[in-house]
Amino acid sequence: MINVNFPVDFNINNSMKKTLRFLNCSSLHVSGLTSVDSGQNHISIHSCHHGTFRYITLIAPDESPNTDGIDISNSNNIEISKSNIRTGDDCIAINGSSSYINITELTCGPGHGISVGSLGKNGTKAEIEEIHVKNCTFNGTQNGARIKTWQTAAVQISDITFRDIQGTSNKTNVIKLSCSETLGCTNILVENVNLTSTAESKEAYSSCVNAHGRSSQSIPPIDCLLG
């Protein structure tokens, strides 16, 4: 077991502009990290297994491009909780070959929201399962719940949960579940979600492509989910 406890006032400042990378790690516990105004992605988690990230604060200007908060790939059994991410891109991006990722009590925004993908570019295969996003708040993000794949790619996504989520989006398509046209997504659950749009005189809506699952108590309604 590896424990990494940062002081609360630890900053990655503009002069550093580095990504903090966790590679090929196991039983890692990170707590109390603050990164402010990083010019690149903040945290990269690749090929890691059984890790927890708590009390993480990541901040970048909302107009800064490609500043994901946390990128996860080829990893499993990762927990991110009790954290605040305000960046110019995805708060958390979950990429291929990842499973059993739990995100709870996260405040996200501005930025693009929490994204499963983008997956399948240039025809590459990918598989993602058991991703659970719960008890999270979005503040002025482009999207809330989002799955994004290249439509003709062989991408298999299953067992995705968005539950007890609230907040606002500066766009109207606040729930976007865009799955592969060939394999699609299965067993998606959206429950007790309330996301509204701050776009003037526009109502929030949801959209789907080949997404199978169910929803309940969702605002906006998700009528596009297939059974």
Q: What do you see in this structure?
A:
This protein has 227 residues and is mostly beta strands. It has a single domain, classed as Single-stranded right-handed beta-helix, Pectin lyase-like (Pectate Lyase C-like). The chain is 0% helix and 60% strand. It contains no helices and 19 strands. The protein has strands at 2-5, 20-23, 26-31, 34-36, 43-46, 49-54, 57-59, 70-73, 76-86, 90-94, 98-108, 113-119, 126-141, 145-149, 155-169, 173-178, 185-197, 205-209, 211-219. Strands 1, 3, 4, 6, 7, 9, 11, 13, 15, 17 and 19 form an 11-stranded parallel β-sheet that branches. Strands 2-5-8-10-12-14-16-18 form an 8-stranded parallel β-sheet, with no helix packed on it. The chain starts with a strand and ends in an 8-residue tail after the last strand. This is Polygalacturonase. It comes from Rubroshorea leprosula. Its main location: secreted.
Sheet with the most strands?
11 strands, parallel
* CATH C-level label: Mainly Beta
Predict the CATH topology.
Pectate Lyase C-like
Mean pLDDT reading: 87
Annotated CATH homologous superfamily: Single-stranded right-handed beta-helix, Pectin lyase-like
**Helix fraction bin:** under 10%
Which parts are unreliable, with pLDDT below 50 for 5 consecutive residues or more?
7-16
**Overall structural domain count:** 1
Number of DSSP E strands = 19
What would you call the structural class? mainly beta
* Global outline: globular
The CATH architecture:
3 Solenoid
C-alpha termini separation: 42 Å
Order of helices and strands: EEEEEEEEEEEEEEEEEEE
Rg, alpha carbons: 17 Å
Helix segment tally: 0
Q: Give the strand content.
A: over 45%
Keywords: Cell wall, Cell wall biogenesis/degradation, Glycosidase, Hydrolase, Secreted
InterPro entries: Glyco_hydro_28, PbH1, Pectin_lyas_fold, Pectin_lyase_fold/virulence
Family: Belongs to the glycosyl hydrolase 28 family.
GO molecular function: polygalacturonase activity
